[in-house]
Amino acid sequence: MVASAGVTTPGSSADDYWRPPGAGDPSGAPNPPGAPSPATAPSGAPNAPGAPLGEPGPTPTSPVGYTGPPPTTPPPADWHPPLYLQPPPPRQLPGQDQAALDLAEQRAQHLTWIVGAVAAVILLALSCAFCLRLVR
């Protein structure tokens, strides 16, 4: 274990890395020693480390947080997308023979039962053969 793994600076938290520059600690704790507070920073100083010198950061009059989407204007009430082609009406489906459908469904059900019975007989025979080998 590394000796400095669990050590933190007094007045800082693990979330400080993810906070924007100058945000400070939301719980009201003072900034770490040696760090300038946002209120005492010079007005022409850059806000982010690595920012070009001489360029000021964002103005303090910018809104804080998400202000929502921009306003939209609804279209007129009688507006519709242009219609270039009128589709034909749907065609009539052919009729169904219910008696033939019932007969085909019964045949399919019988085939399913036969296949299941054959599989069960094969599994029973294999189980019996396996048990006889264990007994001997």
From TrEMBL:
Protein name: Uncharacterized protein
Protein's UniProt keywords contain Membrane: yes
Transmembrane segments: 111-135
Biased composition (Pro residues): 68-92
Annotated Polar residues bias: 1-12
Keywords assigned: Membrane, Transmembrane, Transmembrane helix
Region (Disordered): 1-98
Domain of life per record: Bacteria
Low complexity composition bias: residue spans: 37-54
